[in-house]
Amino acid sequence: MDALKQVTKVVQALETYDIAYALGGSGLLYSLGLTNDVGDWDITTNETKTKVIQSIATSDYEALACGEYPYGTKYKIPKLQ
Fold this sequence. Notes:
about 80 residues, alpha+beta, globular
């Protein structure tokens, strides 16, 4: 699946649950036509983990513990392979 289609699926799920978010990473540059390569998408939110997981429950994603320095996130949700 195209990288932009993948993140669009997640964003639509967040919007369905009225979850505010911000996009970043090389995926954002890709969506703006500033690069041809996508390393990752960064989607940040202040919403609870429970609500985020609920919003994407039908997707191929899972929450993993995180928090490596220098990042402040407590978990990440990578696409399952």
